[in-house]
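Re-run with default settings, no changes from the original entry. Doing this only to confirm the output is reproducible before filing.
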Amino acid sequence: MGRGIQYLRELAMWEMVYYDPDNTQLPTDPDEVQCTQPMWRKFVWSAPSSYASSLAVMDWKGEEAPMVDEVACRFRQYEESLSSSLVSAVEKLSQKLQQLKENMSCSSPVRTSISAIRMTVGDEEPRDSKDTRVIDGLETMEGQVVIRASPLKQAMESVAKLKCIYTNTCSMGKKQQELEAIVQLENYDIVAITETWWDDSHNWAAAVDGYKLFRRDRQGRRGGGVALYVKECFDCLEPNGGDGRVECLWVRIREKANKADIMVGVCYRPPNQDEEVDKIFYKQLEVSRSLALVLVGDFNLPDVCWKYNTAERKQSRRFVKCVEDNFLTQLVSERTREGDLLDLLFVNREGLVGDVTVGGCLGHSDHKMTEFSILREDLLALLAEHGPSTEGIFRLAVKEHVSRELREALDSGAEVHLESQPAHVLAVLLKDFLRKIPSKLLGAELYDEWMSALQKTSRQEKLAALREVAGKLPQANLLLLKSLLSLLQRISRNAASSRMTAGNLAICVGPNLLSPPEEQTLPLDALVQVTGQVRRV
């Protein structure tokens, strides 16, 4: 209600300044400006649909236009009746939402590289303080790697999720009320929208209580537009706007202790988008990829097969190449509009997003909604952000007391600001974690099979054999392995800065990933062999 009155005053100020700038007889207080019929029609037209029908009865046909202050008083009188109608609408929408959720189909399994190795722990007997060391915090259970009382629990767990939803609304129009009801009922942290069809007249109607609104309206022509709603409790900022020809919006979610920042983007790519505009978008993507990145939107690429990253059209193939060059993975597999997969969800890190579901439409939109969770990783995400530019990462040692004190702080459950720690310290923590996993990450029982697979001479045969062995790993191990290899690949690709080639990384990290069964230590020749094989992986 307050937003509406504020917007009415803004219209009055616009009337004062724009329509008659030289008239000194106009009042200086917007509350004393007459609310003319054109002003009132614009006000009612821009209101949320739940208000518009009620406000229409306030029209004063034939009467002298009242002052803005008088209109505000009339407006407040309707608050009680409007509130009751909104309660009724929310109840109906709640029932509809429940039906939509029951019809939703799972598009992909939960994907998380860190939370996958965490299991719920029951009550246990108190343990000696010495048992809280890293090695005692890890155990095997039915073949799975489990963090039971790990001192790295703050560093290695995805302790929270950001609940998100995205949809192409095909014009927000009269869908604002339904959107607000769904957002409040489901308590989403982030809401992404394409094709809002908004312009400056929607400033009041677009707001949602409890959320910051970031929007980019299409300029100069009808349609298009993108928006992001982010809960007010999050510290976030919008980087420089960039080229207005690209209907894309980026917001950086700034995390606190133990968390890495996340870049969230929403994009609308029209079906007939010019290749030059695509190139501008590709440059924006390159700038944003240094952070953990989540990108959603309607990209209008029905000819792309995202299972195999192939496309029929030349322009689509260039888009796919950009996706691959930026290490992006597309997670939506369900068709989102009739028979086509148009609405996509990209991430640049394994396990960053999970719980992907597709189903239900907002209002009469012909696009299905996509719901997902952003898994707020920490240690691996921080290393992925800072590791590639850190010289000697995973090679240079740190003072023993530094790593020991940090592990003890994590042991005690204290809040530790990992983001303030040097990348070298984080790398030591990660190597220590990998070293203490029972049977190692690649599985000591699979040692001979890994070695046999890597002896294949044909590249195709070798890849097939490696996939077969990897398929025998527990799911938790496999997910963590994918994230780790993605991190190491990023570092090796930036060897000019990190001074760490694939060979260097294999020497520093390899012995922590694989060891023979029934062996506590490796002879030198076996260690060299393992290092060489891990380098090939």
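The longest strand covers residues 161-168. The CA atoms of residues 144 and 475 lie 8 Å apart.
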